[in-house]
Amino acid sequence: MKAVQVLGTRENHRIVLSDTLLRPSPTGHRILIKVHAAGITADGVIWPELYASTHRVPGHDISGTIEAVGPEYDGPLSLGQSVYAMLAADSPQGGQSEYAIAMPNEVAIKPLSISHAQAAALPIPALTAWEAVFNRMKLTQGSKALVTGASGAVGAMFVQIAKKMLNAEVIGLASPSKYSFVQELGAIKVLDYGSLDCRR
């Protein structure tokens, strides 16, 4: 099986493409996913959990199809179904590989309206935005929020969650070329993050 592997230490590592790993087999309730796309996290190669894992394969956000399930799996997902998943940081193997093992609570059905590449880019940004909206800022119905980096991965998810779920009044900061994109996501107004006015 082909997979990305990180060799060395956190301080002195190198990334290689390996073809020597065996395809994992799902046990218990686990699900084997044939990976079509995997997200890349900027600091993923220095996460301590990676260096404690057996194969040192990075990646937590994946999208693909269900290849097999463990003998104890009794959930609603079926073989061949398109799904996306966010693997736990301490998973034995990450998702930047041809196949990856996931727990049932890490997997969701991929929407038909998005590609595997788009689905693989969702989990960590969506979770980060969700935690910001509900756990950090504790927004409620009709709240007002100013979102910096509103056209980025996390910012775009924040705008949509706040608008769709809480009918929040969201003002986004973005470059002028991204104004229409951020407004389509639900922002009532978009300001140029580089202008002096929005920094006052």
From TrEMBL:
GO terms for molecular function: oxidoreductase activity. InterPro entries: ADH-like_N, ER, GroES-like_sf, NAD(P)-bd_dom_sf, YIM1/Zinc_Alcohol_DH_Fams. Coiled coil: none annotated. Residues 8-196 form the Enoyl reductase (ER) domain. This is Enoyl reductase (ER) domain-containing protein. It comes from Trichoderma parareesei (Filamentous fungus).
